[in-house]
Amino acid sequence: MASNFGGFIEPVLTVHFPKTSSDENSMRNVINPQLMLGEVDIGAIRLDPKSRDDIPQLLRGLQHIYTQPELRERVFSILREVIPQRTAGEGKADAGTGRPGMDQWRILVLGVIRLGLNADYDRIHDLVNQHGTLRQMLGHGDWSDKTDYKLQTLKDNLRLFTPEILDRINQEVVKAGHVLVKKSPAEGLEVRCDSFVVETHVHYPTDINLLWDAIRKTIEISADLCEAHGLSDWRQSAYNLRQFKKFYRHAQKLKHSTSKDEVKRQDKEAAMKQAHSAYLEQAKVYLERATDTRRKLQHIVLAEVFLSELDEFMRHAKRQIDQIERRVLQGQSIPHEEKVFSLFQPHTEWISKGKAGVPVELGLRVSVVEDQHRFILNHQVMEGITDDAVAVPIIEETKQRFDGIHSVSMDKGFHSKDNQVKLKEIVNVVVIPKKGRLSAVDLEIESGSEFVRLRQRHSAVESAINALEQHGLDVYPDHGIVGFKRYVALAVVARNVQRLGAVLRQQEADRIRGPYKKAA
Asked: For 351, how many CA atoms within 13 A lie in the half-sphere containing its CB?
């Protein structure tokens, strides 16, 4: 088989690995190594080298992983730790799981494609059933294999990865990339580190809309439990929600007066307090009713799981009632550490990074370490910590994973006296501008040619951050901190796989242009 590129015929690599009984047994849970009628060997899949679309680059990177025996075995040994949701009969729903599962290789391919394209499950569902080249990469034939993937199957299996497994796969992808781009194994790495915010999919939080969320879920869960166990406590739950929402909307619409007339301002403040008091009183009524319902259900075994969820939202409601009373009725200021910014994504933080036009971001910081070859070596989801707290640990961890780190550059936010000292014990060159007025010694250091050169190149890490945001890390669409970490880790893998594909594409183009270069 051959592909035409710019008038030249380029042979397409076809790799057939010898299969021993032990090899088949070790690979059985990752991908079926036996080609079926109509299937194309993954190494022989034709990818357009001219295409600048994301899909061919992602598939090219995945193809390289599969066709390099040693790399393939290292990645597969990690994938074996992922336990797919399987069925007793192929293509049929099992009584235990209800849905068919997938080979681990297919889970990896679809996970990389999802984050590489920043696609939702609906788009992935369409691609996996309709995109011919993608189906070949998954091990399906063009015409003989009519395997159809269900949407819920994709959701269930793509959530099987753990952040730790994805992190180990990422290390193998980066090492494979270094083999391609480094001039020699001894070539040093110049790394740059920065952080950005991955936003969670939440509405703008206020104490009154958080109370609305808490009471709404309290009523809904209580009503569902009563209906399931034959209680009539919440027959009018829909009416209760409509009534409570009226109190919420009334309190929401009242704003502080800007009038210069003191009497008008006082009247407006009194109206606000009255509306909030009525809102709080109604919330307390529903909380008391929910407490009574919970008491009736506490001895029912089947209700235990749902009671814990009910307890959580009741706890949120009590906290929000307390904070609204203190803020509006008593005129107190609520300390930042007491605030919660989402009931459904409790890990969400209120982050002010001082970016132009973006006063506040709701999410979590993520720090990334990139090298001069544009591979992301490491990352960390920063829960409740700032840049200066992560500077040393993330570089120490990166140094353990990758030998030959020569220098590190960071922004001022990572600076502290301790960080400067400890980082110099880890790497040879540390480029972190100091805050405030510089001493003569510091000014001389920051004016040095090596410091200036690395500092000028530091901005390239913004391209990596932008690429990650293009690969799904603009807004995290799912729920939970574990899912958040998995989503970030998968985006990093997707970014590096695409970078691997881009390097291979460029090398292929350089080989084809070779005769022209020599003639010139």
From this structure: 23
Q: Which residues have a Cβ under 8 Å from the Cβ of 184 and sit 6 or more positions away? A: none
Those residues whose C-beta lies under 8 Å from the C-beta of residue 386, and which sit 6 or more positions away, are 365, 413
Q: Helix 104-116 vs helix 121-130: angle between axes, to the nearest 10 degrees? A: 120
> Would you tell me how many other CB atoms lie within 10 Å of the CB of residue 372?
18
Model pTM score: 0.83
CA 368/CA 394 separation, integer angstroms: 9
SS3 380: strand
Amino acid code (one letter) for 425: E
| β 349-351/361-370 pair status | antiparallel
Query: Helix 207-228 vs helix 262-297: angle between axes, to the nearest 10 degrees?
Result: 20
CA distance 311 to 85: 31
Q: Are 410 and 193 in contact (CB under 8 A)?
A: yes
Dihedral of CA atoms 140, 142, 147, 153 in degrees, nearest 10, equals: 60
Note the pLDDT tens digit of each residue in 443-482. Answer: 888 888 888 899 888 888 888 888 888 877 888 887 889 9
The torsion angles phi and psi of 353, rounded to 5 degrees, stand at -95, 0
Alpha carbon 494 to its chain's center? 11
Q: Which of 393, 399, 404 lies closest to 189, judged by CA?
A: 404
Over the stretch 313-328, which tens digit does the pLDDT of each residue have? 999 999 999 999 999 9
